[in-house]
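Sample intake sheet
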Amino acid sequence: MHMNLDQLRGFMTVVRVGNFTRAAEELHLAQPSLSRQIHALEQDLGAQLLTRDRGGSAPTAAGEALLPLARRMLADADSVRRELDELAGLRRGRVRLGATPTLCISLVAEVLSAFHAAHPGIELHLAEHGSRQLLDQLNAGELDLALITTSDATTAERFAVSPLLVEELVVISSAASPQLASGRSVTLTEVARLPQIVFSSTYDLRAATDAAFDAAGLTPSVVLEGAEMDAVLRFVERGLGVAIVPAMVLIDRPGLRSVRLREPKLTRTINVARPADVEPSSAVGVMQRTIADTTFALARRAGPTMRLAGDPHPAG
């Protein structure tokens, strides 16, 4: 057999996304190139591995039989790469980090800046998705670390998960034309009456705030729905409405002001996760320590709306 890692990686990607076109985009290949890779693999193995129809692609019985072998071979290749990185120290290597959108514009920017300054030879890859998709990518061996905001018993069984930070969700309005009085907290009932900008349904944050309003029997007054984080912050700065956001995104944003929530107070826990059955490379280990150090410094700057996980008292 002459199958290679690129063929196996292409096969695994098509199985995961269920579509040749999306798989080719993710792998940065032209679709005909990916199709040729899979065809060559099928020719070599003497069996059709994937169905191909308008509805997408799925593994055949032969493809299902190949899946565990492909996973092992790709994992073994990653292990060899990590061992070579170890021998090279931190002069070269690779770290693949995933994070949710709200963390990418705050914590992750600080982390990558500090890490790259100290280790410029390390190749960095960043994936920006919701927590569930990041965990799927971790499980598939496509990420080394992921910063996630949801975690449950199943997650803890499959991954090594370390809580980093407990962060309040706050209500923000424009500093130029504030819709909330400063210096006091507001209830969810009061927020529901204000014109509100809400996130895309793909955001973990959107699910958390929707659940809080539902539990309180409230229907928020929404003026704009479906925006991404950068857009939400800009719309609020322009005075279009208020939004509920993690306290972290307010750092270094003088065009916004925030008010804390009460009845109920909403929080989220930021965790760093990695595959439990894979020993991290030196570069990944240093990245994890950089994340922890940066989180500690950020919590000290943020004041009472953040505290380190495991610390019963707010930072400040």
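Comment: The first helix runs from residue 5 to 17. The chain has twelve helices and eleven strands.
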